[in-house]
Design brief:
alpha/beta; 9-stranded mixed sheet; 14 helices; globular; 6-stranded mixed sheet; binds zinc ion; 2 domains
C-alpha cells in the first residue's frame, strides 16, 4: 500500500469526536441517550481504541455509540452536537488543530434531518475552520453524502461484512489522517479525493463479503491501493433502511496522484455496476410460513429460522409478533409434537410480570407488539415461567413455556427488558436453554453469528415484515433518488462525468 508522501516530522494536534449509530427510519422505535455508551474527554475516548494510536497530540471531546436502532431523538442529538462544537472551538482557542478524526458509523438517522452526519460535520467545520485536515473511518453500511464528502479530506470504510476489520479500518484511517495532518501543517498538499455515487441499494443479507459478488469486489481493493499515488479506495454499500436522498452506494478514493485516484474510483465503480444484478441472499429465503413448513418437515434438528425483518442488529424494533403468532398457529407445535423456541422479544412488561410471578408460576401475558404494533400486534397467551435471569445486555429476561389451557405446548418464548441479540451459546445457557435443544429455533437475526451457525443443522432466512424488511420494495421508500436498483429496472453505467473530485492544495 503506498502511503502518503513522506512528511517532515511535525507532531500534529488532532481533535476526535463522533456519534455512531445505524438507525432505520422504518421502525417506530426511537433511539435515545439511554441506548448509547457516551465517552467524554481525551482519555476516555482514546481508551476506546484497542490499537496503539499514532504519535500525535489528541484532544478528545465526545464520542457516543449505540446498538442499531431507530431515529435518534432531536434533543439528544442537538445537545451532543453543541457539546462537540463548543469543545472543539475551545480546543482551537488554546492552539490550532491540524487534524480532526470524525469517528462515526455513517447511517445515523435523527428526527427531522435527512443527512445527520452531514449536518454534524458542517457544524464541526464551522468550529474548526476550513484548514484542518478531516478524516473519517466508517461502516460500509454508512452513506457518503456529497456534504460529508466535501467536508472530509480522507474517507475510508470497512472491507468485510461481517465486520471483522472494524478496528483495523479505524487504525488505518487514523494513521493516514495523522500523516496527512503533519504534512499539511508543514506546508504540504492535502491528498486528492474522488467520489462516485452508484444508485444501488442492497440489503446487508445480500452483501456479505463471504460470498460473491461482494467477496471479489472488496478483494480488488488491495490491488487498487498498491498503485502509485493511490492511498485508499473504499466501497460503501450504503444503508437501505432509511428513506433519505443520500442512501445509495458510494466509492471514494484518495491519494497524491489525481489521475490515478480518479481512475481507481471509476474502475471500482464500474466493477460494482457490472455485478449490480448478481447480489443474492446469503441463505435460502421464503415467507415465514414457507420456512416453518420446511423446518417442521425436515429431518435436520435443530432447524433455525431468521425473523429477518425485525432484526434488532440492523435497527428492528425487536418486538414484532408476526413470527410468534405463526408459531402459535401450527398444530404440531400446539400439540407439543414439535418443540419450538422463539428468541427473543423485547417486552419489559411481560418480563416484569414473569419476575413478579416467579419460577414455575403460571399466568396470562400479552407479548410483544408494543413498539412495532404492526399486525398481529400484542399476542395474548397463557404461560409457565420456566427461567428468570438478569444480565447487562438484556436487562431482566424470562423464558415462558406457552400453555394451551393447563397443558404444555411445544413453544417456549423468551422475553427481555432491553432490545438484544441472542447470538452466543452463553446467553442461551443463562436461561437454561440450549441452542440445539429444540426442533425449531426462531431468532430475530439476519445472517447467523458463529455460535448460532454452528448450532443450526438447517437454516432459512425468513423475509418477514418489519422495520428492516429485507425485501426493500415492501418498505415504501419515497424520498430516495430515482432511478435506483432494485426499485427501477436499470441505471446507466458510471462514466468519468460521474466522478466528483476535491482536495489538493
Ligand atoms: Zn455494518
Amino acid at each position: 500500500m503506498s502511503a502518503l508522501a513522506q512528511s517532515p516530522t511535525v507532531r500534529p494536534r488532532l481533535g476526535i469526536a463522533g456519534i455512531a449509530i445505524e438507525s432505520s427510519t422504518f421502525t417506530p422505535y426511537r433511539s435515545s441517550e439511554a441506548d448509547f455508551e457516551v465517552r467524554h474527554g481525551t482519555e476516555e475516548i482514546l481508551s476506546r481504541y484497542p490499537f496503539e494510536v499514532p504519535e500525535a497530540e489528541y484532544v478528545g471531546v465526545l464520542h457516543a455509540r449505540a446498538l442499531p436502532g431507530g431515529q435518534l431523538d432531536r434533543d439528544t442529538y442537538e445537545g451532543w452536537k453543541a457539546e462537540i462544537v463548543d469543545g472543539l472551538a475551545a480546543a482551537c482557542e488554546n492552539a490550532p488543530l491540524d487534524g480532526f478524526f470524525f469517528d462515526i458509523h455513517g447511517a445515523m438517522s435523527v428526527v427531522g434531518l435527512d443527512d445527520a452526519e452531514g449536518d454534524l460535520i458542517t457544524a464541526i467545520r464551522g468550529a474548526i475552520g476550513p484548514d484542518v485536515v478531516v478524516g473519517t473511518a466508517m461502516d460500509l453500511h454508512g452513506n457518503v453524502s456529497t456534504t460529508l464528502f466535501e467536508a472530509c479530506d480522507l474517507l475510508t470504510c470497512y472491507r468485510h461484512a461481517p465486520h471483522i476489520d472494524a478496528w483495523e479500518t479505524r487504525e488505518r484511517g487514523l494513521r493516514d489522517l495523522v500523516e496527512a495532518s503533519a504534512r499539511v501543517a508543514a506546508g504540504g498538499e492535502r491528498p486528492h479525493k474522488a467520489l462516485v455515487h452508484l444508485p444501488i441499494l442492497l440489503p446487508g443479507e445480500k452483501t456479505s463479503t463471504r460470498i460473491e459478488p461482494a467477496k471479489s469486489l472488496y478483494a480488488r481493493i488491495p490491488e487498487l491501493t498498491a498503485r502509485e499515488g493511490v492511498t485508499d479506495v473504499s466501497y460503501w454499500i450504503g444503508f437501505a433502511w432509511a428513506d433519505q436522498p443520500r442512501c445509495k452506494a458510494a466509492i471514494v478514493a484518495f491519494g497524491d496522484d489525481a489521475d490515478a485516484v480518479d481512475a481507481a474510483a471509476l474502475e471500482l465503480a464500474n466493477a460494482v455496476w457490472d455485478k449490480r444484478h448478481d447480489f443474492e441472499f446469503v441463505a435460502p429465503t421464503g415467507t415465514f410460513d414457507d420456512c416453518l413448513e420446511q423446518a417442521i418437515s425436515s429431518s435436520l434438528r435443530p432447524f433455525w429460522i431468521s425473523d429477518s425483518g425485525d432484526n434488532p442488529g440492523a435497527g428492528g424494533a425487536d418486538d414484532t409478533t408476526y413470527a410468534l403468532a405463526r408459531l402459535l398457529d401450527r398444530p404440531e407445535i400446539r400439540a407439543g409434537e414439535v418443540s419450538a423456541l422463539m428468541v427473543s422479544l423485547v417486552d419489559p412488561e411481560s418480563t416484569s410480570t414473569a419476575h413478579a410471578l416467579g419460577m414455575g408460576a403460571r399466568g396470562e401475558f400479552r407479548v410483544g407488539g408494543r413498539i412495532d404494533a404492526r399486525e398481529p400486534g400484542p399476542v395474548a397467551l397463557r404461560a409457565e415461567v420456566t427461567a428468570l435471569d438478569e444480565a447487562a445486555n438484556t436487562g431482566h429476561s424470562a423464558a415462558l413455556r406457552v400453555l394451551d389451557g393447563e397443558r404444555e405446548t411445544g413453544l417456549t418464548v423468551v422475553v427481555t427488558a432491553r432490545r438484544s441479540q441472542w447470538a452466543t451459546r452463553s446467553m442461551f445457557a443463562r436461561l437454561g436453554l440450549s441452542m440445539t435443544g429444540f426442533d425449531v429455533v426462531t431468532v430475530k437475526m439476519g445472517y447467523l453469528e458463529p455460535d448460532q451457525y454452528e448450532a443450526a443443522a438447517g437454516w432459512l432466512l425468513a423475509l418477514t415484515p418489519g422495520g428492516v424488511d429485507q425485501d426493500l420494495r415492501r418498505l415504501g421508500h419515497s424520498r430516495i433518488d430515482r432511478p435506483m436498483i432494485p426499485f427501477d429496472a436499470e441505471i446507466p453505467a458510471p462514466t468519468s462525468e460521474d466522478v466528483v473530485t476535491g482536495g489538493g492544495r
